[in-house]
Amino acid sequence: MDRSGELNEVAEKLGIGHYQRHVLLCVGDQCCSPAEGQAAWEALKSELKNKGLSLSQAPNACYRTKAGCLRVCKSGPIAVVYPEGVWYHSMTADRIPQLVQQHLIEGQPLADLVFAENPLSLSNHDEERKDQE
Ligand code: FES
């Protein structure tokens, strides 16, 4: 099998192409301790699995990535959710169930833990470019 065939197979197995959101979670060790980061990561994995959002084609399917550093390096664990580009501080294991339920399923970010927003949208970028022309 050629490489793109193998990669297509991997992507299909991972459900890539069906996700609505992507969560990146930093596991430290500067924004939080490695133990705190790992606990948050394990909570995210199990919560996404329990809600049927991981490796799924469900309407709120969510991909997850464990990050070594998101360059904020304080008040972690730091997490960011795309496509909204909502950045969270203090995303400890005990808060993960609320993140999954409230943001990933109900679409309502946890306002008291948000410290920045950077939605990614090519159409916004295109509109800004048009405004500058
Ligand atoms: S170590 Fe977590 S953001 Fe840098």
Using brief descriptors, characterize the structure shown.
133 residues, alpha+beta, Glutaredoxin, 5-stranded mixed sheet, binds FE2/S2 (inorganic) cluster
Description:
The protein has a five-stranded mixed sheet with strand order 2-1-3-4-5, with helices on one face. The radius of gyration is 16 Å and the shape is globular. It has 133 residues and is an alpha+beta fold. The protein has helices spanning 3-14, 34-50, 96-105, 122-132; strands at residues 21-26, 62-67, 79-82, 86-88, 114-117. Helix 2 (34-50) links the parallel strand 1 (21-26) and strand 2. FE2/S2 (inorganic) cluster binds at residues 26, 28, 30-31, 69-73, 76, 78.
Please name the CATH topology.
Answer: Glutaredoxin
Class by helix and strand content?
alpha+beta
The H-level CATH homologous superfamily, spelled out, is Glutaredoxin
CATH class: Alpha Beta
Count of extended strands: 5
Uncertain segments of ≥5 residues (pLDDT<50)?
none
